[in-house]
Specification:
Strand content of chain A: 25-35%
Helix content of chain A: 10-25%
Mean pLDDT of chain A: 97
Radius of gyration of chain A: 19 Å
Strand order of the largest sheet of chain A: 1-4-15-6-13-16
Oligomer: homodimer
CATH topology of the largest domain in chain A: Jelly Rolls
CATH class of the largest domain in chain A: Mainly Beta
Largest sheet of chain A: 6 strands, mixed
CATH superfamily of the largest domain in chain A: Acetamidase/Formamidase-like domains
Low-confidence stretches of chain A: none
Distance between the termini of chain A: 37 Å
CATH architecture of the largest domain in chain A: Sandwich
Order of helices and strands of chain A: EEEEHEEEEEEEEEEEEEHHEE
Structural class of chain A: mainly beta
Shape of chain A: globular
């Protein structure tokens, strides 16, 4: 890999999406850039934070993203092709239950915080309480372009142009195609995670400052309805060695099914491993995967949560 | 593995769930049984069927299941623990788009049928048109107990007691726990599949007659809210070698997101491999996996469809 031709530092960041924001960098197709985003708390949480800091979080400062990057020649209906070249993790991170946020926010009203220290070379899983070993796979939670709609838009929801998609496989080697809605695309990235399961059920992953490098290309007239991506290889082999414990939720509503599957796993883990329920919830968020097992046997669908047995066995 | 002590043949079957139905077999905990279910069409489709037979399908005869099996000592609030011991595939199967059925039924109103011939020892992937190679992993689509609610209930929707769950990982070595609602549990199984992706998006899998063996045990007072299971090892290594093509659907409704992700993949496959859209749809149903990438970044969720690149590369 060639050395990136550009670097964006953590201060070259913004909060929320706004297509009138001035680019901090312009690149030509083929260029690559190294990004140094802050963690999702925007530096509010540190290696010495306590649960009291969760209650004090200023939501106006969360999820800063590095950018915007203007990609020369990008026009509406094109796709920006982003090749994720490398991730250099910092070795620390946090997972929190933030009141009001998360799939089971109604059941977990109190703040909780877990601080992680892990080997930056990812040689070993990260430890969680007595016995939990969480395999790591760094990726960027937020990666996207500016939406066409004028004004300032919250960074929290992902959109057609990407953004806070929290797709756990947007890691090294993945090629992501993002639909362009404005001239130059106006790319930004941040919210890096050391690990996460499909769903990010408690609302946070292993939130961790991670430097990353990406290469930009254009696909003219791609006319994508939504983002798509290609992974360079298997996506679960870092955690699937011993198979899975799986809980299900069955019924006419996918959201209710997902909630039931997660509740079932929290009950199983907290009983079997004598964990607090909120710890089991956070643990599921960083390593368990929500799948839609069937979506056709009307009127009841099956949503399943796959928890990797390698974490405890 | 010990030889199963009991055998149920294809005529020892029933249509729909009804807890007043007389058991065809009573077993003690620890016993195992060999099952010979018919395929999901109940024998209406054969190796020589054509698409015209799809229009003539009698829905009153679909999804016959072997059973019921009365498990001695099973009582409400217990769980029946089913260990899936072995699957012996027949070597042929079918996948259909059945009008009115499937995630995109509105977009695919016409019947379609694909007949499969495959190596019963699963030594090679099953072929689909020019170039498609679908890895196989047999399992039972329908496996469950009789519901407490009196009367006859359609076999199509799965319920708290299991049934037509179509979970692709209910294959060899998996241990499934089913909540008991009536004395004896009244277990039945059928709807065997040679392969399926998470979601079963077109409504059918590789529907294939497959003999299976299962062992029954009891967990007294398990008090499960929904079925759960444990897999003996990785669940995707038969198809993940080359990674995935992934399409997404982003928005406030998981069902709409799933539909968008599947539509995006059908467009990609049909354009790239010059397939009919309905063939791409059926192909996704047998090997692509629907995952919920994030379900917390209110108000927009991300549903992703993972198509294994090994099918074409």
């Amino acid at each position: 890999m060639n050395k990136p031709r550009h670097t964006l530092h953590d201060h070259q960041s913004h909060l929320g999406w706004d297509n009138s924001r001035k680019p901090v960098l312009t690149v030509a197709p083929g260029d690559s850039v190294e990004f140094h985003p802050r963690d999702a708390s925007g530096g509010q949480l540190t290696r010495t934070s306590t649960v009291a800091d969760i209650a004090r979080l200023d939501f106006a400062k969360v999820n800063p993203v590095n950018g915007p990057v203007f990609i020369d020649g990008a026009a509406p209906d094109d796709a920006v092709k982003v090749t994720l070249l490398s991730f250099a993790p910092s070795g620390w991170g946090w997972t929190a239950n933030i009141p009001g946020f998360g799939l089971l926010a109604d059941q977990f009203p109190d703040p909780a915080l877990h601080l992680w220290t892990y080997a930056p070379d990812l040689a070993a899983p990260a430890l969680f309480g007595p016995g939990g070993r969480v395999p790591l796979k760094p990726f960027c939670g937020t990666i996207g372009l500016a939406p066409a709609e004028p004004g300032l838009h919250s960074i929290v929801p992902p959109r057609r142009v990407g953004g806070n998609m929290d797709i756990r496989d947007l890691g090294t080697g993945t090629v992501l195609y993002l639909p362009v809605e404005v001239a130059g695309g106006l790319f930004s990235v941040g919210d890096t995670h050391a690990a996460q399961g499909d769903g990010e059920v408690c609302g946070t992953a292993i939130e961790s400052p991670i430097t990353l490098a990406a290469k930009f290309e254009l696909v003219k007239g791609a006319n994508l309805p939504f983002p798509r991506f290609t992974t360079p290889g298997p996506v679960s082999r870092h955690l699937d060695t011993k198979g899975y414990e799986v809980t299900t939720g069955i019924g006419p509503d996918l959201m209710a099914g997902a909630r039931a599957a997660v509740s079932g796993m929290i009950d199983l883990l907290s009983r079997r491993y004598k964990m607090r329920a909120v710890d089991a919830y956070m643990l599921c968020s960083v390593c368990a995967n929500l799948r839609i097992s069937e979506i056709v046997d009307r009127p009841n669908w099956v949503v399943s949560l796959y928890f990797p047995r390698s974490v405890f066995e």
